[in-house]
């Protein structure tokens, strides 16, 4: 019993120290953003790509923010997966009511069976760029950009050594069901790792011409499932850096079920498994630390039954140190993010204290997602089934146009009356 407890204790101490170290870097990043230590204003000609499949609940807010950016010279390309997708009609209806001089809507022209649909849309958006475009940005439909989203995102790219600028994903759900809380807790810890290991988030990205005009990008995307995590590798190959932009921390208030949360976590971890050079470290750290904590919790009962109070105290102390380290960093990071979005005139409610009871379920779901990410080859997303046998061996085995229940622009405006 002692031989099992000792390595578990050491694993948790290491995990806690690592999170304190990573957290210090994350907090410093946000503190520098608050002090206004930015580069001079940089607003080159830019194009923003918005790939769409299906009508996301917050799409109308995404369009509203995207088409009203405080940016002097930018165009928008919206690429819809299929002409029969209801979102195609929805977007055209919206643009009839809210016109924009430089917004183009198109349908995916040629469909490949060997990469993700988002990649195909992005490749189409990159295919006919004019020579004066210096920056290409893209975002997901569940991202609601504030008025300076694009201006904030492109600032780091004026440094010729920076080729990729990434936003940061943060959840602040309004509802407190189990699935939503598990996703919030997991993502809060995952964001710290993403920043430490430079894992790009595809929800808000901008790349310079040094990256998007290089043929390696299109060649890789045409064989890959996801587009974002690989950007770190490509940037390294091109002697470019990846920079994270705290001002482009995008808050999502959407709720989810436990099943959807598990599928989401599995996809995120598969992305890292396929396209990040430190996957083995990410997987090992996550799996061993989760197993170590669960093992010590189980042993705690045995030591209590034996009356072995020194070991009970030691286990409780280490668990408290590890949980406190992660909790402290997440709490401080949450404060910084709330302070940031408050400047946009938005306030979000704090999660209830009952969220602490979801910590153990989060560990269990995380372990299951790690194991699933190591073995899963079939990926289902919005009616499309992919076979992902290897990072560059992707095949669409089932495709059909997305067909949800239709909603008019007016109905959607009423349904989604408030979102960041």
Describe what you observe in this structure.
The protein is α/β, with parallel strands linked by helices and 420 residues long. Helix content is 50%, strand content 16%. The protein contains 14 helices and 10 strands. The strands form 2 sheets. Strands 3-2-1-4-6-5-7 form a 7-stranded mixed β-sheet, sandwiched between helices. A 3-stranded antiparallel β-sheet has the order 8-9-10, with no helix packed on it. A hairpin with a 2-residue loop joins strand 9 and strand 10. The longest helix has 34 residues.
How do you describe this structure in short?
The chain is α/β, with parallel strands linked by helices. It has 14 helices and ten strands.
Keywords:
three-stranded antiparallel beta sheet, seven-stranded mixed beta sheet, 10 strands, 14 helices, single chain, 420 residues, disordered C terminus, alpha/beta
Question: What is this structure's SSE topology?
Answer:
Elements: H1 2-34, E1 46-52, H2 59-66, E2 74-80, H3 86-97, E3 103-107, H4 117-126, E4 135-139, H5 149-154, E5 162-171, H6 178-196, E6 204-208, H7 209-212, H8 215-221, H9 230-237, E7 241-252, H10 258-275, H11 279-306, H12 309-342, H13 359-375, E8 378-381, E9 384-390, E10 393-398, H14 409-415
Parallel strand pairs: 1-2, 1-4, 2-3, 5-7
Antiparallel strand pairs: 4-6, 5-6, 8-9, 9-10
| Class computed from helices, strands and strand pairing | alpha/beta
Q: What is the H/E order?
A: HEHEHEHEHEHEHHHEHHHHEEEH
Could you tell me the mean pLDDT?
Answer: 90
Rg of Cα set: 22 Å
> How far is it from the N-terminal to the C-terminal residue, by CA?
50 Å
Sheet-strand content, in percent, reads 15-25%
Question: Poorly predicted ranges (pLDDT <50, ≥5 residues)?
Answer: 405-420
Give the tally of β-strands: 10
Helix content: 40-55%
- The total count of helices amounts to 14
Largest sheet: 7 strands, mixed
Strand order of the largest sheet: 3-2-1-4-6-5-7
Approximate shape: globular
């Amino acid at each position: 019993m002692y031989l099992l407890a000792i390595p578990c204790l050491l694993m948790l101490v290491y995990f806690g120290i690592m999170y304190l170290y990573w957290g210090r870097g994350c907090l410093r990043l946000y503190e520098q953003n608050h002090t206004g230590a930015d580069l001079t204003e940089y607003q080159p000609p830019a194009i923003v790509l918005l790939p769409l499949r299906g009508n996301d609940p917050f799409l109308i807010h995404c369009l509203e923010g995207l088409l009203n950016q405080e940016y002097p010279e930018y165009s928008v390309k919206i690429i819809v997966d299929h002409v029969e997708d209801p979102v195609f009609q929805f977007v055209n209806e919206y643009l009839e009511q809210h016109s924009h001089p430089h917004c183009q809507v198109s349908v995916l022209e040629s469909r490949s069976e060997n990469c993700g649909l988002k990649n195909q849309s992005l490749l189409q958006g990159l295919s006919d760029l004019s020579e004066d475009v210096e920056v290409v940005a893209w975002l997901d439909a569940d991202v609601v950009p504030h008025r300076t989203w694009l201006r904030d995102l492109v600032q780091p790219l004026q440094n010729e050594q920076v080729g990729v600028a990434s936003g940061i994903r943060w959840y602040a759900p309004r509802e407190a069901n189990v699935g939503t809380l598990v996703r919030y807790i997991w993502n809060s810890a995952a964001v710290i790792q993403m920043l430490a290991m430079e894992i790009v988030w595809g929800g808000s990205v901008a790349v310079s011409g040094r990256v998007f005009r290089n043929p390696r990008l299109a060649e890789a995307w045409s064989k890959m499932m996801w587009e974002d995590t690989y950007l770190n590798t490509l940037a390294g190959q091109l002697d470019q850096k990846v920079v994270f932009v705290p001002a482009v921390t995008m808050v999502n208030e959407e709720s989810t079920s436990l099943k959807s949360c598990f599928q989401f976590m599995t996809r995120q971890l598969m992305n890292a498994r396929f396209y990040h050079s430190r996957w083995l470290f990410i997987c090992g750290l996550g799996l061993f630390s989760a197993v170590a904590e669960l093992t010590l919790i189980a042993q705690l009962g045995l030591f209590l039954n034996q009356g072995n109070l020194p070991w009970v105290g030691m286990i409780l102390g280490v668990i408290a140190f590890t949980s406190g380290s992660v909790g402290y960093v997440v709490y401080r990071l949450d404060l910084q993010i709330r302070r940031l979005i408050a400047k946009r005139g938005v306030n979000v409610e704090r999660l209830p204290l009952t969220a602490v009871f979801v910590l153990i379920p989060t560990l269990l779901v995380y372990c299951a997602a790690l194991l699933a990410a190591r073995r899963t080859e079939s990926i289902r997303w919005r009616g499309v089934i992919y076979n992902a046998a290897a990072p560059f061996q992707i095949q669409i085995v089932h495709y059909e146009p997305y067909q949800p229940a239709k909603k008019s622009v007016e109905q959607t405006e009423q349904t989604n009356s408030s979102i960041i």
